[in-house]
Every structure is written in C-alpha cells, then in structure tokens.
C-alpha cells in the first residue's frame, strides 16, 4: 500500500519435526507427515494468493527452498530423499535441497538449472535484483550502511546468481561448495562435477548425531554428474577409479587453502556449539579460574 519495497521471510514450522496436524486437515490417509505436507502446500498457496490480491505478484520475487535434507531417525515423521545420507552427514542427502524461484518477466517459467547453487548465494543475488551488484566486493573493503549508521566488513561466501537465473549466463557463478559439520569440521568439498570427502559419517539414523565422523587418509572421490547418489564406492572397480582421479587433490588443496586463509582476516563471529562433555569441562575450568581471580 505504501508503494515501498518489502522483504518477507516466511519460516513455516512445516515440515520440521514433530508434525501435529489439525483433525480437519488429516486428509491423505498416509499419516501425519503427508497430511502436514498438504497443509503446508495450502499455506504457500495462501501467501501466493495474497500477492495476487495486493496486485504485486508481477513485481515480487518468490523463493521456495529449505535448509537441509531429511532426518531419517524420526521416520515416519520425516522426509524421504533418493540421495545418500541425511541431515548431519556430509553426503548429498544431508545438503541437497529443492529450490523454486518465480519472478515474472525476468525468470522464464519452467526453467531448470542443475549447476551448483547454494543458500549462501541468495543474499548477493537478491541485492543484485534490488540494484546492488557489488555488495560482495564492497563488504571486503568495508561497507557503510546509511540505515544502520555503521560500517560492515565481512567476507561473503555467496555468489550473485541473478544472470544464471535469468538465463543470461549458461553456467553458475559458483564452481565449488564446502560441506561443513555442526562442529565446524570440513567434511567435503565439491569442485564443479567432482566431490571429495575428507571425513565421512558411516552410521545411519540417530547414530549420525551420537557417533564420530571417520577421518580419511585419502579422500573418497565421486563424479556427481555420473554418480549423483554417491554409490560408486559399492562397485568392485571403485578403488581403481579413485586412484586414477587422485590428481584432483591438487586443485582441491588450493581451494581449501584459499577458504581457510579467509578465516584469518575474517574469523567466525560466534563460537561453534558443542554437546560434548569435554566442552562442558572446559567451561567449568574457565568458570573456576574466573571465581579464583575474583576471590
């Protein structure tokens, strides 16, 4: 109504566990999860209808996506996916998610894009749509915000993907992706079509939350164009194929070194959470030192 730009992030409780559906919405006969999905679909429809009612749909970018893959431990109240692994693993099943974008007059309907695209890319991409194509470079130097009256100096891991979405570029602006664990460990990296695992989660279900990752002396390698489900290692010829592709370690090392080097100038702003007893003991020792200093 005010004819001003707006940004809305609608973070629905669907489809996160646990699913509790109203009696009148239990319509599928397939259980709470399926009923909740239909309920969620109706919620999305209400938002899209609202844009139509306000007559702003043609000038609004709509993005639908999610934050991680399925959590198999909570089945049947859980998603299902074809990819190997699940949430809290470095396999594609933990990271690969759907994404749909609508921007009438700019992004062609029924466009299918399969190059690498990460959630980190939305920020610079949306700012580009709003008129700022240089925010990534600006933040490296120091960007003064007029609205917040402060200067921000940050390293953005995202890429401006607007030209890719609009069909002006045939390939993604992103060649690589780094797979990090909740503990801040680098589990794997993707370099174009190839993915290298440095640590793997060999457990399933609830054990992915309670058991350690396995460190690999030589990374597992997968060609995600040929083997998107990461099942090649189940074949008896995998070790030979892996050995014939160890040359990929050289460019991978350079890219890993580059991203790790960025942490020196732009260190993480918050401490990595931990549920281990070692972390609790460390906190107790630090608290004891503070109390002794006061005493």
From TrEMBL:
Highest taxon, organism lineage: Bacteria
Annotated ranges, domain Sulfatase N-terminal: 3-131
PANTHER family reported in the protein's UniProt record: SULFATASE (PTHR43751), SULFATASE N-TERMINAL DOMAIN-CONTAINING PROTEIN (PTHR43751:SF2)
Protein's name in the database: Arylsulfatase
